[in-house]
Design a protein that fits this description.
This protein is mainly beta. It contains three helices and 27 strands. It folds into two domains: 154 residues, no CATH class; 272 residues, Beta-galactosidase, Chain A, domain 5.
């Protein structure tokens, strides 16, 4: 009996050791999931799923100064605390992105990855990014993994209806808990200069001649629907006419950063004047999420146009996307959100009437899906308001026979974009414009409001004090 009892105890010990190894062995010692928290203090009520969420390091006070490489972002779903995709993008003291990756085609050019002077620790101006849909229930502090060095409880709240959700940024002493999901990627297929931004909703390639501009655009797996991006300027100075187009732009690809939530891609651009002179180059970072592309324009006015506007007869600026092969698609704008225009290569009366109206967005819908492009002139880079320096009017021409060189595919089928009015009143300084593109899944009339809310009614982000 004693021998049998000893054998029984031995089996139980072996069984316990095996189960313990199986359960705990898949996690680093300091990153074991906590016991089930039981009833949570508050359930997730947030229903918005299109939004990305940004939080500056200055509000993540418990993690400030900690190693970014040791951080994980956790959310509670269906009784389980689990890692969710996130990234922390560093900024230098001047407020510029710290980009850490060099495109393969530039590996031997001397271009070097950047490094922040904080040696990889979280600064007040660094930025945490994650998707709102991944946030979960609120949990008690003691339910977080044991052995963590710091934790910030981040609440996101919808200002429209007051609904909420939570995530937890944790610093681990060992290897952090990380998600393997990746919402967007920057890939470099052989033979495609500039690479491609790719996710299930869209794929964007870049013009070899003008890397700042898209030269390939696929929506939900469609064929390439774009010929080129056009920038046209006409003016008269002291009686002499001047004109510029995108061929006078000089653009070079620079560094980038590819994370699970977004890709930040930098280009440097200048303008050629009279064929040989160039303006100083300016850096621009385009940002790509799984359903949103943000193209900021940062224009430095070296002098006041308003001060010399008596010498200028006129200034006309137009920025457009010249599409191709989208006959059968439809377009509507905020000038007539209930009025669809049919794209067929011929201008009808309804299309003529909408051309030139004051607009801030247009939406294009076709068999593969829908996308909306919005021009924002009344906000600074951090989202704070600015007095709109320019007014946008719709440029729309659905005409297969209308030539607008330079272009690779003759005709405008259609050309859609914006006239910018008010250039003659610009003062010396920096002005900011944003073109924001939203790729919309399962579109129905009115769904664009969900995407408009991302900017107009942004989710509120706060951190529980003392958590």
């Amino acid at each position: 009996m004693e021998k049998i009892s000893r054998m029984s105890r031995l089996r139980r010990l072996i069984l316990f050791a095996g189960v313990s190894t199986l359960f705990f062995g898949i996690y680093p010692p300091d990153a074991r999931p906590a016991d089930s928290p039981g009833p949570v203090p508050e359930k997730k009520s947030l229903t918005r799923v299109q939004d990305y969420v940004l939080a500056r390091g200055k509000i993540l006070k418990n993690n400030l100064g900690k190693d970014i490489g040791q951080m994980g972002l956790l959310a509670f779903h269906k009784g389980k605390l689990e890692p969710i995709p996130f990234q922390i993008d560093e900024m230098n003291p001047e407020g510029d992105w710290v980009l850490t990756q060099v495109p393969p085609e530039l590996k031997n050019t001397g271009l070097k990855p950047e490094k922040d002077d904080d040696d990889g620790s979280l600064d007040a101006n660094d930025e945490l990014a994650f998707m709102a849909r991944d946030a979960g229930d609120r949990v008690k502090k003691e339910s977080l993994p044991p052995g963590i060095l710091a934790a910030d409880e981040i609440m996101i709240r919808d200002p429209v209806d007051g609904t909420k959700a939570w995530v937890y940024l944790c610093s681990f002493s060992g290897s952090p808990l990380l998600s393997d999901r990746d919402y967007v990627e920057y890939v470099f297929p052989e033979g495609i200069p500039g690479g491609r931004i790719r996710n299930p909703n869209f794929e964007i390639g870049f013009s070899p001649e003008l890397p700042i501009a898209p030269g390939f655009l696929s929506i939900h797996g469609s064929h390439n629907i774009i010929d080129r991006m056009k920038t046209r300027l006409q003016t008269k100075l002291i009686g002499m006419k001047f004109s510029l187009d995108e061929t006078q732009l000089v653009s070079k690809t620079s560094l980038y950063k590819d994370g699970p939530i977004r890709v930040i891609r930098r280009t440097r651009s200048a303008v050629k004047l009279i064929g040989i002179f160039r303006t100083p180059s300016a850096a621009v970072e385009n940002i790509y999420y799984e359903n949103v592309s943000i193209i900021p324009f940062r224009v430095k006015m070296l002098f006041s146009i308003k001060a010399i506007n008596k010498l200028i007869g006129y200034v006309k600026i137009r920025g457009t996307l010249d599409f191709q092969n989208i006959h059968g698609w439809r377009i509507k704008t905020d000038a007539g959100p209930d009025c669809w225009l049919n794209i067929d290569g011929k201008m009808d009366e309804a299309e003529k009437n909408v051309n030139g109206k004051n607009v801030t967005w247009f939406l294009v819908s076709g068999p593969p899906g829908a996308f909306m492009i919005r021009l924002v002139t009344n906000r600074m880079p951090d989202g704070s308001p600015q007095e709109a320096p320019l007014i946008s009017r719709l440029f729309y021409l659905d005409d297969d026979l209308s030539l607008d060189p330079p272009e690779a595919v003759p005709g405008q089928s259609p050309g859609i974009g914006y006239w910018l009015d008010g250039t003659e009143n610009l003062e010396k300084g920096i002005i900011y414009l944003y073109a924001i593109s939203y790729t919309i899944n399962d579109y129905y009339d009115g769904k664009e409001k969900e995407y408009m809310n991302i900017l107009d009614k942004p989710l509120e982000v706060s951190v529980e004090a003392g958590n």
